[in-house]
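>> Question from a student workshop board

For tomorrow's exercise we were told to take the sequence and the ligand below, predict the bound structure, and bring the output to class. My setup keeps failing. Could a helper post the expected result so I can at least see what it should look like? The ligand is iron/sulfur cluster.
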Amino acid sequence: MTQQNAAPDVAAGRLSDEEYKKNFADLHPLLAPHEAMVEADRCYFCYDAPCTQACPTSIDIPQFIRQISTENPAGAAKTIFAENILGGMCARVCPTETLCEQVCVREEAEGKPVKIGQLQRYATDHFMETHETTPFTRKASTGKRIAVVGAGPAGLSCAHSLAVEGHDVDLFDARSKPGGLNEFGIAAYKSVDNFAAREVEFVLSIGGITLKTGKALGKDLNLADLRTQYDAVFLSIGLGGVNDLGLENEGKSGVLSAVDYISDLRQAEDLSALPVGKRIVVIGGGMTAVDIAVQSKLLGADDVTIAYRRGQGRMNASEYEQHLAQTNGVKIMSWVQPKAIAAENGHISAIELERTAEENGQLKGTGETVTLPADMIFKAVGQTLVSADLNGADSTVQIEKGRIVVDADRKTSLDDVWAGGDCVLGGEDLTVAAVEDGKIAAASIHRALSA
Ligand SMILES: Cc1cc2nc3c(=O)[nH]c(=O)nc-3n(C[C@H](O)[C@H](O)[C@H](O)COP(=O)(O)OP(=O)(O)OC[C@H]3O[C@@H](n4cnc5c(N)ncnc54)[C@H](O)[C@@H]3O)c2cc1C
Ligand code: SF4
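>> Workshop helper replied:
Here is what the output should look like for this input. Compare the format with yours to find the bug.
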């Protein structure tokens, strides 16, 4: 690869305060009451509603929309929270275009679904603004104690459902703040005004859940001890590692994990202090790739390219997400894979991409290459389970394909250990799927402890 001689251009404060504010404003602002009524009136209140069937948490969508249309947003919120206690975050982050809204009969008939996600947000925001606690009452104490490890969507959902049943939950997290990727991963413009933290408080308001941050399984805790100290354990530790590209110079300055950078961005008090490259190449094709590409653009990067190894139609990011990237000026380059990284004086300067093709279903390099100058390269090629965290004397759960194996009840190979969310095999890498896992596991734990 020919060397790129321009000095790396990585700088903070590329934009004015006004521009940062505008760029990171709420992607879908809250509907006004009259907008919500008009939208709710579009619903046909279908029998055997396809939207409910497509919702991983089975929210009774026609029911909550009817409640909005009869000016009962608090009732609508209760319908939502009954199935999904993180309904507020899911309203913001669910790819509704591939779930409930994709199958809405209005979408089929006229290509314009009922805005289910925005109506869900209308109801849940209304409730959280007007009530200090969840709408549920804790049952009498059962005296049973459960350890939930990981306070992301799966852990929070499981802890809440268990608390409602009267169990006592210790909710551990390795980080200093709870919320998991809701707090550290979701794109900043999808969750503004500290919503993730406010939602955690809302969930914990049920009582009976003791949050213990700064407690890492594999370091401060081990599974064998938890199994002796508690009546059941739920593992919801997500995916703490990231895949590498396996290229020379990957360790040089300028090559970053997209997930780590997004975490810094989400925690930044002042976005203008966050350095960003002028020319950025993102490797990957999922939601993380789109999120880092769009947010880099919004931080003031000039030239942002997502390099994806297959055709654009095969990207894991939905069409809506791809469109969002392109309307923000991100280029999507398909059928290319990273081949080499050039670096000068300890910092990367370019990436060489090899064109790819598919032959009998197998992806292969064609030998033809293209070089893009780059000040920063973001790796967004998947996350991995840090399985070492799970080792503890005789307490190792079964792992396959790098994920924890669970049955339909989210029970692991160990009798008293359940797991859910991103860390389990077959997980869908969606917030709403993690919430559902937590809910299913809690119901199963409750049955087991009540037997
Ligand atoms: C950048 C990015 C953007 C995304 N955007 C969307 C989106 O827009 N919409 C969507 O639906 N999904 C999105 N997802 C996916 C979604 O965030 C996840 O599917 C979801 O958060 C999984 O929830 P979880 O509870 O399983 O794991 P996590 O949210 O990862 O939570 C796991 C928790 O466990 C803790 N933990 C980890 N290891 C240990 C340990 N050893 N001991 C104790 N605690 C530990 C972590 O600190 C964390 O709090 C995105 C993911 C990423 C990475
Ligand atoms: S499919 Fe669409 S129209 Fe039918 S109940 Fe669901 S939101 Fe309403």
